[in-house]
Known about the structure:
Number of strands: 2
Helix content: 10-25%
Shape: elongated
Strand content: under 5%
Oligomer: single chain
Distance between the termini: 53 Å
Amino acid sequence: MTDPSDSDASPLFEAKAFDEPSVFDPDALLKNARRQKDLPERPVPEICVLDPDGDVVRHLTATGAAERDETWPGYHTDLYRFERD
Length: 85
């Protein structure tokens, strides 16, 4: 284990305040990304499906059921919107 008094130690090993709120507020992150990318405000869907291998997105886009949301401010992600009954 790294000695916390070691000046060369990474800040990753410093004590964490797990009971404190995160400084990475999702609303603030999206708001600033929209500002930086000059995108309009659009609400995040109530339910989001994580599709790590892309099978769901490929099927939904191939059948015309989903479209890529051009207003999604994520830097390394895409959001596809679709409706289900």
